[in-house]
Amino acid sequence: MPNSIHIVRDRRARRRRAKSGLRSMRPWFVGLLLMVVMIVFASMTAGAVVMLGVYSEIVVDLPSAESLELAFQTSSNQFFQTTKIFDRTGQYVLYEVIDPRAGDRQWLDLEQIPVRFQTATISIEDKTFYQNAGYDLFGMLRAFSANLSRPICVLRPEDCPGLIQGGSTITQQLVKNVIIAPGMYADTSYSRKLREVLIAREATTRYNKSQILEWYLNTNFYGHLAYGIDAASRVYFGKPAVQLSLSESALLASIPQSPA
């Protein structure tokens, strides 16, 4: 009997010590938890302020998507200008490439461009073209994930010009080709990417997809000084775009991925 009493007393004593230990730990644990919450909140607030500042700086002089329409209101001979290569500041012209085929270019309405070529281009360049809002969030996330394999590309995107281009939609590429200043072409920062996204989103709300696709196919670069599908068709196959076969359409549609 005495043994049973001692056992019960020991159990009660252990329980009291355990409860006492928990009580002494609670203030310390609560303080640590509050500190973590405050640090997280402060970090999120600071990040939001920085992002708001960057966004405000970008949108101050952000061109309107209406610039697309204004650019294409000129005649084709006026629109197709010579290629100018600027220095890294974007202020001084280093070289000027005069296209000998400038007079051979012809603007095509979307109905004149083979449907097979349109389909091939969308399949290769922007599978969600008819559904997206001018930008592809998942595509950009995939490109960013690819950058994570090379940390320097996340911290210094200008050192990885090939990777930062990933995730661009047809509308973004059109914006870059027509609206973004030539001096910014070499800028591979995320700020320039954000500018493209904002203008592309506005362009999608202002113009229908058929109009955007027509503009893109008539101005895209296909290598060998060929801008626009008709010029590319004549350069590579010696015939107008309306005569392209299925295999020829597939070949030309893949060229913008790595133009010469």
From TrEMBL:
Its EC number is 2.4.99.28. Residues 101-259 form the Glycosyl transferase family domain. It catalyses: [GlcNAc-(1->4)-Mur2Ac(oyl-L-Ala-gamma-D-Glu-L-Lys-D-Ala-D-Ala)](n)-di-trans,octa-cis-undecaprenyl diphosphate + beta-D-GlcNAc-(1->4)-Mur2Ac(oyl-L-Ala-gamma-D-Glu-L-Lys-D-Ala-D-Ala)-di-trans,octa-cis-undecaprenyl diphosphate = [GlcNAc-(1->4)-Mur2Ac(oyl-L-Ala-gamma-D-Glu-L-Lys-D-Ala-D-Ala)](n+1)-di-trans,octa-cis-undecaprenyl diphosphate + di-trans,octa-cis-undecaprenyl diphosphate + H(+). SUPFAM superfamilies: Lysozyme-like. GO terms for molecular function: peptidoglycan glycosyltransferase activity. The keyword Nucleotide-binding does not apply. It holds the Pfam family Transgly. GO terms for cellular component: outer membrane-bounded periplasmic space; plasma membrane. Keywords: Cell membrane, Cell shape, Cell wall biogenesis/degradation, Glycosyltransferase, Membrane, Peptidoglycan synthesis, Transferase. It is found in: Cell membrane. This is peptidoglycan glycosyltransferase. It comes from marine metagenome. The lineage of its organism: unclassified sequences, metagenomes, ecological metagenomes.
